[in-house]
Amino acid sequence: MTNVGPASPLATSVLGDGRTIAAIGTAPGRGALAIVRLSGPDVSTIADRLLRPFPGVPRQATRARIVDPNDGSVLDDVIVTYFVAPASFTGEDLLEITTHGGYRAPMSVLAAAIQAGARQAEPGEFTRRAVLNGKLDLLQAEAIGDLIEARSGAAQRLALHQLDGGLSERVLALRQRILQVEALLAYDIDFPEEDDGPIPRERVLQAAHSALDDVRGLLATAELGAMILNGALIVLAGAPNVGKSSLFNALLGEARAIVTEIPGTTRDAIEAVFDRPQWPLRLVDTAGLRETTDPLEQLGIETSARYLSRATLVLACGESAERIATVTRHVRAYTGAPVLGVLTKADLVAERSQLDRAVPVSARTGEGLGTLLDAIDARLAAEHGEPPGNDPGLTRARHRAAATTAVDELEAFIDALATNALPMSIAAIHVRHAADALGELIGVVHTDDVLDVVFNQFCVGK
Known about the structure:
Layout: E1 21-24, E2 33-39, H1 43-50, E3 51-52, E4 62-67, E5 74-83, E6 94-100, H2 104-115, E7 119-120, H3 125-132, H4 138-149, H5 153-163, H6 166-190, H7 201-219, H8 221-230, E8 232-237, H9 244-252, E9 270-275, E10 280-285, H10 295-310, E11 313-318, H11 321-331, E12 339-343, E13 359-360, H12 369-384, H13 397-419, H14 424-442, H15 448-455
């Protein structure tokens, strides 16, 4: 049996059931190639039953045949690469088998691996083992999921930076700042009679305030990070038949929404991600806002209201300045998001002097589409700051919750110390909880429940 690499501080729980796992690591369907992965202590034994020949040199791609472990019949002609623990993604012995694509070839290879002694991997189990074996921390593991799910260049860059350890380094540095506050408290509590005397309260408060400011700065990145990851929600709102669907299609460059001359055509919201250099935009074409007795249309309007309540920016679409003003007043009942006026069908409007900063566009001629996109970027930057670029920031609800806990605990400590509400030894508990919150974020301290939250949305084979 091959020895597993050195465990991280996370490995206080059992590394699964200790068995070798196997899964297809590529999406199902027609394709040139597919990858089947195995990881665990019995990889070499299983590979010896499946491969002709067994790869003699680790980390070197080798051509081989996969055979059925029961009757020796050939299943596929493959390329295999063998990684010896701990120098692998999971920290265990790892085998990657590149098969021909499609359904049958990779499935038959996976079935043969299971017959030879492996078991089907759970979703995210390869990455989970990498975390438990100290190859990745939790933030880097989440970055793998974010990279797989990325729908824009900005989300891809953010995930790669997090995978490279940028966010982990920032969180570790902040946790160290909090631990330094705890060290001052411990010295003052445990060694009050030392030659240096007690630690001045002002020094402790200054260190705590400094750490609090830094953690608040980290927490402030959560909104921007979520916007980059998921896209800024841009809702097109307006009365029926004002050209929202035509504008939606023109911005995307393809006919995603049905466009007709019949008012109320859009019965439901239609959503698409538009990859912009600065901000990924989640464009949503919604049902026209008006009074109606049609129950189906009313359902569409209710869906529009739900999107408006979550909007990052609303495009108030109308054929005149008066229509734009009317829809702007209407959407204010559903959202506090900023509103940008858009004069649709600008090719039919001669008089534009009363537009008041609304952007004139024409889906038919293409007039103003680039100007509208630039205006969206500018409004997002004005409301939320510039995109984070390469600066590491929080992206998930779990990140926000942990940073919020750290902020709350440090604020409680500072308040208790400043008002003498609690003895120093009791107030110090807040500092410990703040450090633990950041430790849980990166995985220095953890529970199995936290791991389950991180990996429950991963795909099988990753």
